[in-house]
DNA sequence: TGTTGACCTTCCCATGATGGGAAGGTGCAG
DNA sequence: CTGCACCTTCCCATCATGGGAAGGTCAACA
């Protein structure tokens, strides 16, 4: 099986398959006399594992760890779970940070009428670092 | 004011200040006879703006846009708001994706006892792409 | 005055994961 | 035999940031 077919079958691009080989994430695969790489079912299996781990946001280095645990017959599932929980914590931390940024910015955007005047609380806040004033600070219109 | 002091005052590292200058995000600042860069209040003001925009997750290119809008006296706040809303959407999309990954992985992790056996639903799911079985698939204990 | 240590300058390199593209070889179908 | 689709390796780009080397400057202190 050529690299292109392996890419299609595994969902990992040919570029990435070569890259993963170059960094030792997948072992060097057999070559035909032409020099073409030749992929078998076990290779596809490994590539699929990697793709699914990437889809879950695991870094290359952590996938390396997971692959080691995968091939380690004497592994305990507690080790795998620990890696997963660490990763979950990091994902949620990053998600939280992004959402925090979005919330801050939304507060600013809500203070901006967007009515065509040059005056803008968003710009003002970036300029001074101060929270915007008025526009609901004393929400008497409520 | 030297670059180091400007860095301290603005919260942007000296490395980054030079980089921002090199890409034209901040104009070339005055030099002393020694060749040292010399920063004044207006320069600090701009650097502070940039730092706060970075803290809100804006990309360099979008900050360039915001800086243009800042210096444009005839800007309408609607333009600024539009940039902000676009950015909010992107931030929330990324946050959502990360949280989705975390949720998927948490489902797997919950199916894993972590009791020291080699059997592990997390690894199995990465291997086969199938959702884990048992462990609550028929939650009779509810 | 001389020395020392902290600071500045430019330049190059690295990150992480991925894609683009060039130059040249291979394989298969018409 | 020709053409096209595929393969090979190699280099470069991304984005924002930091590290470090080699060399110049400045201020304080003996």
TrEMBL record, chains A, B:
Q: Point out the coiled-coil segments of this chain.
A: 81-108
Q: Which SUPFAM superfamilies match?
A: Putative DNA-binding domain (SSF46955)
Among SMART domains, the record links this protein to: HTH_MERR (SM00422)
Q: Where in the cell is it found?
A: Cytoplasm
Task: List residues of the HTH merR-type domain.
Answer: 1-69
Q: Would I find DNA-binding among this entry's keywords?
A: yes
Keywords, ordered alphabetically = Coiled coil, Cytoplasm, DNA-binding, Transcription, Transcription regulation
Protein name as annotated: HTH-type transcriptional regulator HmrR
| GTP-binding found in the keyword field | no
Note one Pfam family from the annotation.
MerR
Name of the coding gene: hmrR_3
NCBIfam families named in the record: CueR (TIGR02044)
Task: Tell me the domain of life.
Answer: Bacteria
